[in-house]
Amino acid sequence: MTTVSSSLIPDLAAIVGTQYVIWKPEDLLVYEYDGSIDKATPQAVVLPRTAEEVAEVVRIANRHGVYIVARGAGTSLSGGAVPLRNSVVIALTRLTELIEVDAENRVAIVEPGMINLQLSQKVSHLGLFYAPDPASQKTCTIGGNVGENAGGPHCLALGVTTNHVLGLEVVLADGSLVWLGAAQRESTGYDLRGAFVGSEGTFGIITKIAVRLLPKPEAIHSMLAAFTTMDAASDTVAEIIAAGMVPSALEMMDRKTIDAVEPFYHPGYPAAAEAVLIVEVDGLIESVEEQTEAVLGICRKHGAMEIREADDEETRAKLWETRKGAIGAYGTIAPTYYLVDGVVPRTKLREVLQQVDQIAAELNVTVANVFHAGDGNIHPAILFNERNPSEVKQAILAGARILEACVAAGGALSGEHGIGIEKQAYMPLVFTEDDLESMSRLRTAFIGEQPDDAPIGVPSLSERFNPGKVFPGGAIHGEAYGISAESFRPTGTSDWQ
Ligand SMILES: Cc1cc2nc3c(=O)[nH]c(=O)nc-3n(C[C@H](O)[C@H](O)[C@H](O)COP(=O)(O)OP(=O)(O)OC[C@H]3O[C@@H](n4cnc5c(N)ncnc54)[C@H](O)[C@@H]3O)c2cc1C
Is the pTM of this model over 0.90? Predict the structure, then answer.
């Protein structure tokens, strides 16, 4: 833990104003958490208003030898925004401006604290929208999306955040402000912008983002199909993709998720439905009509028991509300959820979902599924009571086993939620020591080398931003609930003592 200098708070307040520095223990509680199950208390939270203030805060933090954690809306599901090691949190929620819209070139420059959904709302009158749409888009920030390289239901056809970010203004470890990439297409030199996207706040603080905007499609058609088995729904997904179609969205919910959303949204899904698929197609009117027919045909072939359709904004929003609100609705079933985020080849979807069921049964945990089926990004939600230590332990073990199953099926550790605290111990499942060393060197390239004469007690420069994240050994997933490093060896064996 770093030593807190008594002048830190006044020094921060001198930059941003007293009302924008939070340091009282009762006020800091709010910043202990993100959307994951991990937590840690910061020593202070500072809310700058401009990029220059962010840079000055970084310089002050350097002078005081404290760690820094960038925070958007705090909805990260992997512990990304949890301030380990007594860090100072820089909350970007006052940097919310839409700085510039170039409608002709379809580019906008935004501040990182802008709420994702608000960007599409603000450019809607120009016939444009911002494609990445995490299910948390009413709350999460575009800066946080860049931090995690977020995806969303409509990223299947259009790509995740990195495909829509052209350039970034960032504050580096020495407090300098630099641009990576540009506000137009460019391919000169190394793609430092690309390296920064998804770096989970470990390279620096993003203060401006140049994003690509897309024209709204001529027609959009949404379909919802209910099935009596998950297998039938999974086979439908596989056949839609195999038919050469790339719907704009292809999402699935299982029975437990249906049970969670019914009392909230009253969608009235059939009582015998074990799975619900939402498929959306967009584009030119003729092509949408053609794709709609093809999708409906495949759904019927696999025994869809009910099909609903929507093509105006209001009915589409209604059809989507259960999917977009599903994670929050888990509160109707259990006090806490741990949302796992693995990726599997689409052809292995059915097999891995069966394994998830098996793992849940063996470990006696409740698992609900809501996920981006089209790109094989599964999100088993492990539902438990955090006040019961044995339930916490079982939940974390179930998460580990599910991630191992994804990797064993040829998939990946994360589709969109990042590594953070949650998955760092599993990194050796997919990366060798040399891989991890290369990643660490990339971080050093952004952050800088620790000077040989650095005073004792000053935190390592390489970990100046978001310490303890991404790399194995940085933190223990579930430590706040008494999980210890010794109790878990996730080297492909999931051994618990
Ligand atoms: C109900 C629910 C649904 C969700 N659905 C999805 C989904 O469909 N797809 C998806 O991808 N995710 C989803 N998420 C996860 C989460 O919303 C995303 O990871 C989102 O991108 C986080 O944004 P945020 O503003 O909350 O960032 P935070 O949680 O505050 O931060 C996330 C990470 O980014 C870093 N960061 C934040 N701002 C900056 C900055 N300015 N500069 C540098 N680093 C920064 C932080 O240090 C942290 O590592 C969901 C979460 C919830 C709770």
Answer: yes
**Nearest residue (CA) to ligand 1, atom 9:** 134
Strands 88-91 and 44-46: parallel
Contacts of 444 (CB under 8 A, 6+ apart): 462
Q: Is 222 a pocket residue for ligand 1 (Cβ < 6 Å)? A: no
Q: Encode pLDDT of 337-377 as tens digits.
A: 999 999 999 888 889 999 999 999 999 999 999 988 888 89
CATH class, range 98-215: alpha beta
8-91 has which fold?
A: 3.30.43
Domain range annotation of the chain: 8-91, 98-215, 217-333, 334-432+477-491
Q: Which CATH class is domain 334-432+477-491?
A: alpha beta
Helix (H) / strand (E) element for 488: namely strand 488-489
415 C-beta closer than 6 A to ligand 1: no
Q: Find out whether the beta carbon of 112 lies less than 6 Å from any atom of ligand 1.
A: yes
Q: Choose one of 95, 148, 264 to mutate for the ligand 1 pocket test, by most ligand atoms within 8 angstroms of C-beta.
A: 148
Q: Which of 76, 252, 324, 424 to mutate to test the pocket of ligand 1 (most atoms within 8 A of CB)?
A: 76
CATH topology of domain 217-333: Alpha-Beta Plaits (3.30.70)
Count the Cβ atoms, other than its own, within 10 Å of residue 409: 18
DSSP designation for 216: P
Q: Tell me the pLDDT tens digit for each residue of 389-419.
A: 899 999 999 999 999 999 999 999 998 999 9
- 334-432+477-491: same fold as 217-333? yes
Q: How far is the CA of 415 from the centre of ligand 1 (A)?
A: 13
Does residue 473 contact residue 208 with C-beta atoms inside 8 Å? no
